[in-house]
Design goal:
Chain lengths: 259, 611
């Protein structure tokens, strides 16, 4: 089994408002900010609490995006079960009347599984400068849409693909990791085209696998120079480590498209 | 020239159709080595024999059949020939390839090329038996399909004769008429109209000599190895389902042009996919001469008819026109063959007209997307140039210029040549390839879709990797189209340029290597560009229709495919730099010098300057 992390979410087409690169950049910037904080500020002034690191990471991420997008989905790095449908649900709820979409799952607000308007950067920086490092201070001066579990799951795709809202589950301890390993692999739809669909091969079937390589193995194909896969009709790839989530469709086709 | 190198005769046969006379002219060895054969040598011959700025359908405009050094060897897929002319559809260079026995018989007339000049006095056929030329009246053949004319001529002259002929569309000057041989077509750019303008229904050739190779044993061994490799996985698609296998796969990745490129997925695609219909309709599989792949798949149509179905036929006459009736698409394809029409341009022009009708720009209420009967009627009218066919016979560019009122924005062409079945917004390396190619929107001279579908870069966000992919695939096509080898074989070459150089060395005896062949590829690509420049090309022609730059497509994943003018411009600028062109798209003096193109840069035909 392969457990997904933030840089392997396969979020190729999940965000309508924020381009993928901006979303990825925000995540990367967040990580960098964390490292910077721990290495520099933490060493000299004592490590701040987790919520403090989060606000600084948020500032770094929003700054990195700049004017290239209006909204960012912000995530911690320890949620390998994050589903694109969750991102779509949260980002999709942000409209002109809202600055932050803040999910509340398991009785907790989830500021590191939330959507933020990029324009909040100055407010975040002011809070940091004032050493008011709690995300709650940001929410006090923002227009926040709180979304509880029931409201999140009103969204059909999310209810179908991540009904337990595992998207916000942190995996911090070895036991968490082991529990994740024990989960059933996601259900993925497999389609075959051209000669790969030759009977008795099924042209369309459902298999369980965590990665593209797992899917290929499950249907008896090898992603060599003659075969490529398309993920959800979009990304063309031979990356056997590409993580998959439930609801993904993988199409196998011959690599030579001449005609 | 002394003895020509292996694989060549070192001559072109010049045929004056107006007098029925001919003469042989030497093609010097440096020219052969610089341009190889097929599309490459054809380009050089066009520089030499085509008067500058001549009207494509003027008798002075030449029509050239070009052979290549590998023809006549046992190398698989080598029995191909090129036909080259100034296109009546684009006003630029066009070259089209076709396969089978005409290539072998034509070359074994003892010439590397046959140049038809002038025009017959009446509907005629030209018979070439080595250096003997005869122009025979053929009024009885006028109006027949190419296949019927071919059959009658072989009955009349004997089975040793091979025939390339035009159908009624070529006779009537439809600007995208084809030249056909043995059911295969030199299809793109209106070569059939050029032949028809010369009152030439057909050209007959018969093998009368032999051609040698420098290393016959080496060629035989290479042929054996290549043949064995041609049975492998790289050609499985072509053997098992043919190019029709593209249709459903392209639909799944939003690359199937639909309803005049207003969408990239077609709800009716399953009814046309080979995977769906092969069991019920597939009749037979055939091969070209000297081919071990066998990509040709014959399908059963309505009323017991049969037709060879290819992806491009089906895309253009099916999804592009919104038609999902397999019977209708097979019938339409078959009718295009009979009339002698390029199916891509036919489908593209009809789809444009359907959209015009939808928008109230053309008064032909019967012509609606998805209406199979309308599709067949439109094809008939084009072939006969009756009714709406008079307008549509011009192709989508000229027709849209006539209709105006914004219809130019969605006329699906580049340089006048209708787009093939590769959606440029979701294949952005291909978008560049389509825009800059000398022949116009074309998938055979630019295979940049290979780069898009490799998974190496994001096909929806064109940039530098896409440019590199477009240049590389264009270079490879230039060599394959000149050797000539079928592109369906390309996947079997692990390291193409060294392998191709070795084949050329075995046949010709030249000490050619991969580096030389890479330079040759660049030379051929730019020689075509120089011809177009001579004929009035400007940078504005390296562009895509507005539709592709102003309308986005949404993929099933939810991601949006957008190709902006700025992105396309950036890719074109980069392509120009990569090709050694200036900002106007003109080869720089350094490039001209490096590629030995100096003889082609004058505004007049090169005449005897080279050689």
């Amino acid at each position: 089994m392969q457990v997904r992390n933030e840089t392997q979410t396969g979020l190729t087409a999940e965000i309508r408002i924020v381009p993928l690169w901006a979303w990825a950049l925000a995540g990367i910037a967040f990580i960098i900010a964390q490292v910077f904080f721990n290495a520099v500020l933490g060493r000299h002034s004592g490590a701040p609490p987790a919520w403090g690191r989060a606000l600084m990471g948020l500032a770094a991420g929003l700054a990195a995006i700049g004017d290239r997008a209006e909204v960012a989905y912000v995530s911690s790095t320890d949620v390998p079960l994050l589903h694109p449908a969750f991102v779509r649900r949260v980002v999709g709820a942000l409209d002109d009347q809202v600055d932050v979409v803040l999910p509340e799952v398991g009785g907790f607000r989830q500021p590191l599984s939330a959507a933020y308007r990029i324009g909040l950067l100055s407010a975040v920086e002011e809070l940091i400068a004032a050493d008011r490092m709690r995300p709650a201070f940001l929410f006090e001066r923002s227009r926040v849409l709180h979304m509880g579990e029931a409201e999140l799951l009103l969204n059909g795709p999310l209810a179908r693909l991540d009904p337990a809202l595992a998207s916000v589950s942190n995996l911090n301890e070895p036991a968490d990791y082991e529990r994740a390993h024990a989960l059933p692999a996601p259900e993925v739809v497999v389609e075959r085209f051209g000669p790969l669909a030759k009977p008795p091969a099924a042209r369309r079937e459902t298999v369980r696998a965590w990665s593209l390589g797992g899917v290929a193995a499950a249907v008896g194909l090898t992603l060599d120079e003659h075969i490529v896969a398309a993920l959800n009709g979009d990304k063309i790839t031979r990356d056997v480590d590409l993580p998959l989530v439930s609801g993904d469709t993988v199409a196998f086709m011959v690599a030579d498209a001449g005609g | 020239m002394g003895m020509p190198p292996g694989g060549y005769f070192g001559t072109a046969l010049l045929v004056d159709l107006s007098t029925g006379s001919g003469r042989s002219e030497t093609i010097e060895e440096p020219v052969l080595r610089s341009y190889i054969g097929g599309a490459g040598l054809g380009t050089w011959l066009m520089h030499k024999y085509c008067p500058a700025r001549v009207e494509p359908l003027d008798p002075e405009a030449p029509l050239i059949f070009v052979f290549s050094p590998l023809v006549g060897t046992p190398l698989t897929t080598s029995a191909k020939f090129a036909v080259v002319a100034k296109s009546p559809l684009t006003g630029r260079l066009t070259d089209a390839l076709a396969s089978s026995h005409f290539a072998i018989a034509g070359k074994l007339t003892g010439h590397d090329a046959i140049v038809l000049q002038g025009a017959c006095q009446e509907p005629s056929v030209v018979v070439i038996d080595r250096d003997r030329i005869k122009v025979e009246p053929a009024l009885d053949l006028w109006g027949l399909s190419a296949a019927e004319a071919e059959a009658r001529l072989r009955d009349r002259h004997g089975p040793a004769w091979r025939v390339a002929a035009i159908g009624p569309a070529g006779e009537r000057g439809v600007r995208y008429a084809t030249i056909s041989h043995d059911g295969r077509h030199a299809g793109r750019g209106g070569l059939g109209a050029v032949m028809g303008s010369k009152w030439c229904k057909a050209i007959l050739v018969r093998a009368g000599t032999k051609v040698g190779s420098a290393d016959p044993a080496g060629v035989l061994a290479a042929a054996k190895g290549l043949r064995e490799r041609s049975f492998g996985a790289a050609t499985a698609k072509y053997r098992e389902l043919g190019t029709m296998a593209n249709l459903l796969a392209f639909n799944a990745i939003s690359t199937l042009p639909t309803r005049n490129f207003s969408a990239a997925r077609f709800e009716g695609a399953p009814a046309l996919g080979a995977e769906e219909i092969a069991d019920l309709r597939h009749v037979a599989r055939n091969s070209c001469a000297s081919c071990s792949i066998g990509c040709e798949h014959i399908y059963r149509g309505p009323g017991g008819t049969q037709a060879r179905m290819e992806y491009e036929n089906v895309f253009a006459l099916g999804p592009l026109c919104g038609v999902s009736d397999a019977d209708a698409v097979i019938a339409a394809s078959s009718r295009c063959d009979e009339l002698g029409l390029d199916t891509i341009s036919t489908g593209g022009t009809i789809a444009w007209a359907m959209e015009c009708v939808e928008k109230g720009l053309i008064d032909a209420p019967w012509l609606r997307f998805g209406d199979a009967e309308a599709l067949l009627r439109a094809i008939e009218e084009i072939g006969t140039r009756e009714g709406l066919g008079e307008l549509l016979a011009l192709g989508s560019r000229a027709a849209s210029e006539e209709v105006g009122r914004g219809s130019e924005a969605f006329a699906p062409h580049v340089k006048g040549l209708e787009l093939p079945g590769y959606e440029p917004r979701t294949l952005q390396a291909m978008a560049l390839g389509l825009a800059v190619n000398a022949r116009g929107a074309d998938h055979n001279r630019s295979g940049a879709y290979e780069a898009d579908l490799s998974g190496v870069h994001d096909r929806l966000v064109g940039g530098e990797p896409h440019v590199a992919g477009a240049i590389e695939t264009e270079n490879r096509a230039a060599v394959m189209d000149s050797l000539i080898l079928c592109k369906f074989l390309r996947g079997v070459f692990e390291d193409p340029f060294p392998e191709w150089a070795k084949l050329l060395e075995l046949v010709t005896g030249w000490d050619v290597d991969a580096d030389e062949l890479a330079v040759t590829a660049r030379r051929i690509v730019l020689a075509k560009r120089l011809f177009n420049l001579r004929e009035g090309w400007t940078r504005e022609e390296d562009w895509l229709p507005d539709r592709f730059l102003s309308e986005s497509l949404e993929l099933e994943s939810g991601r949006t495919a957008t190709l902006t003018a700025g992105r396309l411009t950036a890719m074109i600028d980069s392509y120009y730099r990569g090709r050694g062109l200036d900002e106007a798209g003109v080869p720089s003096p350094e490039t001209v010098s490096e590629l030995s193109l100096r003889g082609l840069t004058d505004s007049e035909p090169i005449g005897a300057k080279v050689g």
